[in-house]
Automatic annotation (TrEMBL), chains A, B:
Name the UniProt record assigns to this protein: Arginine biosynthesis bifunctional protein ArgJ
EC class of the enzyme, as a word: transferase
HAMAP family xref list: ArgJ
Subunit structure: Heterotetramer of two alpha and two beta chains.
Source lineage: Bacteria, Pseudomonadati, Pseudomonadota, Alphaproteobacteria, Sphingomonadales
Gene3D superfamilies: ArgJ beta chain, C-terminal domain (3.10.20.340), L-amino peptidase D-ALA esterase/amidase (3.60.70.12)
Reactions this protein catalyses: L-glutamate + acetyl-CoA = N-acetyl-L-glutamate + CoA + H(+); N(2)-acetyl-L-ornithine + L-glutamate = N-acetyl-L-glutamate + L-ornithine
Amino acid sequence: MSTSISPLATPFPDLPAVAGATPRVARAHYKTWDRCDLTFVTLDEGTAVAGVLTQSKCPSPEVEWCRKALVLGKARALVVNAGNSNAFTGNRGRAAVEAIAARAAGQLGCQPSDIFVASTGVIGVPLPIDKAEAGLDAAFNAAPSDWRAAAEAIGTTDTYPKGAVTTAIVDGRTVTLVGIIKGSGMIAPDMATMLGFIFTDAAVEPAFLQAALSAANGKTFSCITVDGDTSTSDTVLAFATGKAGNAALTGDDSPGADAFRAALADLCRQLAMLVVRDGEGAQKLIEITVTGAESDRSAHRIAMSIANSPLVKTAIAGEDANWGRVVMAVGKAGEPAERDRLAIRFGAVEVARDGLAVEGYDEAPVAAHLKGREVEIGVDLGLGDGRATVWTCDLTHGYISINADYRS
Amino acid sequence: MSTSISPLATPFPDLPAVAGATPRVARAHYKTWDRCDLTFVTLDEGTAVAGVLTQSKCPSPEVEWCRKALVLGKARALVVNAGNSNAFTGNRGRAAVEAIAARAAGQLGCQPSDIFVASTGVIGVPLPIDKAEAGLDAAFNAAPSDWRAAAEAIGTTDTYPKGAVTTAIVDGRTVTLVGIIKGSGMIAPDMATMLGFIFTDAAVEPAFLQAALSAANGKTFSCITVDGDTSTSDTVLAFATGKAGNAALTGDDSPGADAFRAALADLCRQLAMLVVRDGEGAQKLIEITVTGAESDRSAHRIAMSIANSPLVKTAIAGEDANWGRVVMAVGKAGEPAERDRLAIRFGAVEVARDGLAVEGYDEAPVAAHLKGREVEIGVDLGLGDGRATVWTCDLTHGYISINADYRS
């Protein structure tokens, strides 16, 4: 983990244990570093699993493995390797994933398809099977860790460990949802080299868990971007151990389904924001809300066009209320827009309306807003009811330094 | 014009006069600078015109004006304002364009629709009509300038003036094509704050001139990107004065049509490359060729995904053969790709093949290639015959400095 912590970092919360999910960490020495880089979370029998995976056409073998295993809906363990993404490594990469799943299945007496694997780091170097196996053995024999140790062990260029917790009342029982996540660059989750893992003691059928996770993903992970670059390895997995004792959630009509979905969405949102706050070189968190679009989908595309614009992001870095660049980004999105209906605000102050600058708007609160750590940009298109909110960070010298100096 | 010249700059060529096209420049004082910022090119009667304009949904009133006037296919003058794009200025912006066209038409005794107007600079500030009119009058009364003075007067954040020339034999006559262009940031011509103007003494019917320009645009201006940000004002106009004495080119079957089209495409390519070479903060010119795609269109989209990836661009800035980032950018493009058929080269050296690193490839020539000013990346998808070449520059601290410090 980097030594220079993002100015947008928030403290790691106090995460409770989740009955049925037990994290352990070990040193697999995937890089020449002295830190834990293999995380092994064992899950009690009966654990349901759901996941959302990168839409990249060049996914890692881990992503392909998880996609297949998710069909079965059940899990006994999660293995996360940090420092090597194992992506774009052909048959050797596939063999490494198979070897990890087989080793863990042997330790736990389950099927390899019960083992979920995720890896993050450099692309193009096959994950060394001997290090993975030795690391797994060390983790299996280690004492359980806390979630913070796991959150640290899954990180790469992250500048701080990221975790979140929430609860919901389901069927008269309080269920706990805990999540850990990593990611800082190559972040534009098409669903983010983002890996996120959620653990709950709720009893949830896999199909409903998947539906709830997919819905939450659409409003959270899919709404963040650091650099518009989508990883080969993006993975979010949710595991439900069923130990809370509620009657299993099977669908929208199940008692507590709404509460669970809301809690899951809240957790995903917390986790997503932690990633943006650790965006490479980030000095400011930017929330972009587009309203008045022809559809929610159109609003989302326009918002992402703004969020991914280097000129908008550098303007915010420079604390410059350069709304002309916002106009540019709306215009290039390719979505329905009418210049002369467009309104733009920074914070609470409308700076442009009906396709031109608001004459004599008060610049002082705008300047003050832009000096803060959290910047809001609002765009109203004046066309319909479509709306979307996305989150990004500014583009600074820090991003260039991190990525022009990182050697493959 | 900036004082720090791009390391990729090329010298301004010796541009000949074009019979029937007469440039003049003046100081309109659009900004507090001591330089010419209004260019006025008068065109003799009988001049044909064609153009390609930004696809932005928030175009400047100049773009809208040109779009309408292009329908008539004839031109008597071009007016270019630098320092103020007049974009997103509502009725006042439209009024400014109309006033300029009316003033110039009055001077020349023609219709306002014979006057083409383009402006570049800050967005959201109405172009001051009084300055424009005084500038026009000064230009009208000035002695003709050379093309270099015009190329300098249309620039904004450009670090050097940009022009190109070529000739073709058409109908037994040598015709001359001269072009000037400006642009450095907000460059992703969806047809680039790119303005380009081409003047030829060839006799060409407007419809054929338009067809030839659109075709050339597809392989040149539409294949360059600096930052993926598409301007509200991108404009390329081609004027044909007809003074060379050839029988007018009317279609593909006209004698010399092929030669003219090839010359126009060559000129457009030269101009496009000059813009990329002046990309904000650029230290290296990057040529990306994608082959083996399902279609040319698919190849173009994948090539642009690579060209616009901040992680690829920073890797090149860092002289790092990080082909994993190229894989990432292929994967996120959303176009057909099969990871295990993918091959990637830097310069002439294949570094990945069949979905994994080429073992033991010679790193020395790759490292040497990356240290140069011009970097080639090749990607073969192994799927079909589709191919495309695009050009971009690296992403450096210079881009951040320029754009985080530029105040609106």
